[in-house]
Amino acid sequence: MRATAGTPDSRVHLRTFALDRKLLAIGVGGGVLSGLLGVGGGIVMVPLLVLWAGYAQRDAHAISLGAIIPISVAGIATYGVAGEVRWWYALGLAAGSIVGARIGAGFLARIDERLLKVVFGTFLLAVAVLLGARG
Amino acid sequence: MSGPTLYVVLVAFGVVVGVASGLLGVGGGTLVVPFLTLAVGLTQHQAEATSLLVILPTAIAGSLALRRRGVGDLGLALRFGVVGAVGSVLGALLALALPGSTLRLVFAIFVGLVGLRLARDGLRGEEGAEA
What we know:
By secondary structure, chain A is mainly alpha-helical. Chain A has helices spanning 21-37, 42-51, 57-81, 87-107, 113-134. The N and C termini of chain B lie far apart (43 Å).
């Protein structure tokens, strides 16, 4: 079941096996960012997949999300060997986060996305300043 | 914070993270890392390592949900991710080689850029909006 081919508005060209040079570069770049900063990497992979590699937004999102699985496993292993992973903290956060994702999906239809982006973006800027000040 | 209180706070904050990432596609590590350093008191390295372990189950759950709906190509995504895993090991090794304060500053810049982009997207909205 990997049906996207029929959608009329999509710019999709899902190659079944080949990973071309653009995908390689995006994958490695997203991976470095993920390992360096402890994030998923989707924040750079999704826009690059859309704007540079020509994927439709929805497919870019799906590919990025799937890619985060091996990417995060490799990062966890590397940090794990160094003894930096706090397993029980992660378990608590992950338990809440899976519940939260379902709640969030339910909100999607009836929310002002623009306002939310402005509010959340401003909040992240404040977090950045706070982190910088503590650094 | 310690013991049960800490655990309740962790789960509650996890819910916030899940809602944010469900709504904006942002919010995994961007929120978890600052929370773990500023509120829980982990080092930057511990926070980043732990954040990746929060992201993993979320990515698995999300990918399975998308596959059920026939969106994307999980096989391609995983192969793509294996390439990314090479980068991820390099990134983590680089992080481990950096002092915590430097790493925190790099992270702060990253969060600031993400915040700017979100705010900008939200403010100019209209012409880019699909719905």
